[in-house]
Design brief:
Blueprint (H helix, E strand, L loop, with lengths): L4 E6 L10 H6 L3 E6 L15 E4 L13 H16 L3 E4 L1 H9 L4 E13 L1 E2 L17 E10 L5 E7 L2 E7 L3 E4 L7 H10 L1 H6 L4 H38 L1
Parallel strand pairs: 1-2, 1-3, 3-4, 4-10
Antiparallel strand pairs: 5-7, 6-8, 8-9, 9-10
Helix pairs in contact: 2-3, 4-6
Length: about 240
């Protein structure tokens, strides 16, 4: 069987795979990255990939009328859903997955920036990917938008009145939070977006303290989630290629 091939969609220079990368490489993934801030089309057609992982971004899925690459990513996501290609969406990527499944994207009642606890549903324990998060994970958030729950979605986690983790069908998962974030990225965001965070009422000292408290658990969950998703991509590759 050829090496399982994963398309990673990266929307900003800093928000890369980060903590997810090592586990994906260790699981044998061949990673090809579509940097939407450099090119408006993916490097290869969807048919050449065994899985899709879409990361976070500073743009909104609702900006689609003004950004042609968002339309292209939505079409790719819709095609991946239709073909049963495994998908993992993170923050912007989760909102894109929800949109491709028919959801409406909207401003959240308030920004979520910093560490939050997510309550996972009983269904999380048997989910082949999201079980890796445990029952009450502390996760790092940085988003302004939310979404309606698609009819086809099973809600797996919620917090602050919003869907935080969901599954569509048997091969597509979305998490609103930044499971890939590590201390280096979080501190870089504090430096880069300090004025924006301050306007949103972020307590920087609390973020620093909670990062020191939670980063190891977050790292372990990130690696476990990446390994679980890679397992779904590998299984799909075996089904496709034998």
């Amino acid at each position: 069987m050829p090496q399982p091939r994963l398309l990673v969609i990266q929307h900003n220079l800093d928000d890369s795979l980060n903590e997810l990368g090592g586990a994906l490489v260790a699981a044998g993934m061949r990673i090809d990255t579509w940097c939407t801030f450099l090119t408006e089309t993916p490097p290869q057609p969807l048919e050449l990939f065994d899985g899709v992982l879409s990361l976070g971004g500073t743009d909104s899925v609702a900006d689609e009328p003004h950004l042609p690459w968002i339309t292209r990513e939505r079409h790719l996501t819709e095609a991946a859903l239709a073909s049963g290609t495994p998908i993992l969406g993170i923050c912007f990527g989760a909102q894109m997955l929800a949109r491709a499944a028919g959801a409406e994207i909207m401003r959240a009642p308030r920004p979520e920036i910093g560490w939050h606890e997510v309550q996972m549903s009983p269904a999380a324990a048997s989910d082949p990917v999201l079980a890796a998060l445990g029952q009450r994970p502390h996760v790092f958030q940085f988003h302004y938008d939310t979404f309606t729950t698609p009819d086809a979605a099973t809600v797996i986690g919620a917090a602050n009145g919003m869907t935080q983790a969901f599954r569509i069908g048997e091969r597509a998962w979305g998490v609103q939070f930044h499971v890939e974030a590590n201390p280096a990225l979080i501190h870089a965001w504090i430096a880069t977006f300090d004025e924006e965070m301050a306007q949103a009422g972020v307590d920087f000292e609390q973020v620093r303290a909670l990062t020191a408290e939670h980063w190891r658990g977050a790292r372990d969950r990130s690696e476990a989630l990446a390994a679980a998703f890679a397992g779904r991509v590998t299984a799909h590759a075996i089904d496709r290629h034998g």
